[in-house]
Amino acid sequence: MTRQRVLILFRPLLTLSIVFALLVLRSTAQSDQPSAANLAARRWFQDGKFGMFIHWGVYSTLQDGEWVMQNRKISIADYEKLPSQFNPEKFNAAEWVALAKSAGMKYITITSKHHDGFVMFDSQVSDWTIVKRTPWKKDPLKLLADECRKQGIHLSFYYSQLDWHNPDYYPRGRTGESAGRSDGGDWDKYLDYQDAQLRELLTNYGEISGIWFDGWWDKPKASWRLDRTYKLIHGLQPQTLIGNNHHQVPNPGEDIQMFEKDLPGRNTAGFNEGEKIGDLPLETAETINTAWGYNFTDDHYKSTRELVQYLVRAAGANANFLLNIGPRPDGTIQPEFVERLHQMGEWLAEYGDSIYGTRGGPIAPHPWGVTTQKGNKIYVHVLEWLDPVLLLPAPANQVTAAYALKDHAKVEFSKSGDRLLLQLPAHSSADFDTVIVLETAPR
Fold it and tell me: Within this chain, do residues 61 and 177 fall inside the same structural domain, yes or no?
């Protein structure tokens, strides 16, 4: 066969190959952009504003927080004795979800695997799970997913990238040195294991609103294959929002930016140093006491006033508030948490219009309070102010009316130059937040 004839015969195949390659490149480029479902989920997330964080695992049996394995330098051999003592017979998914609803929360984010590597669902790629290792032998995430669908609550899963138990988490990071893992392992095999579990979570539990990653900071210089993992998640469920608690500027493929125990732009806890606020939806996570996981001796509970005001300040910073509970090993939730959540729900039943569906208002947060905005309404949240008047920067649009959200009583105001003076309504020390509604004219 002549060379000319070979070229003639293969030219159609070459053309098809080029077309296929171009289609692949085009598909890849398009996959880097958020889908319509993903963008809609981001809007829903920002509108929802308030979620329940749940840290629950085998560590609760020791009643000393979720870092007990690290803090007490417990070896894997000794830690593996715990699941036989973990029998949460009083767990009631309906009660957990109903508590979130009563608090005015719109979504739940629960730990599917924490740093100890213990898996809180029926994973088929591990035997270090609640189903295989405990006398309870049930899958709480499945029970919770079914109940969330019944009660109209969105469900997200926390997943720890860090693992003190898996031998393939190697080279080891900054933590877990006392676990007694062998000096060897296959890092790519570990990442395959992680992706296999994420596939299970996104395949077997219905629609999942988010994956909340944590632990990247243990090995910040490692090759985490984030692009591959993120494409796996969005490929299985495009609407699933990815967040990573790495305290860095968000990476491509991430859909929300999280701030741990601090409002965006602050660093009182030391986690968010140098973390700039990006353009993605924001979320701040905080505890009711000081621990994430159940801690029997931790009685440093924040008051309902503190928690409501944290929610308000988060909304004023254009962020969601993810408030944590750490259930007890028997599956019950301590009454101090329940009381505060019910009280927050009562406040939101009266003032929720100033939180849900809003974005950060036109006036920057101040020590006295914050503003939120929805449509032509600006909500002025006066949190810490004793004077009878409050001087504000005047909004860009003309203020046509002002009234108290509590009882719709008229609030007197006057404008001078670029300043707006509000005559504040009388309020008592029992009020967590004095909310004044400014109605503005359209441009």
Answer: yes
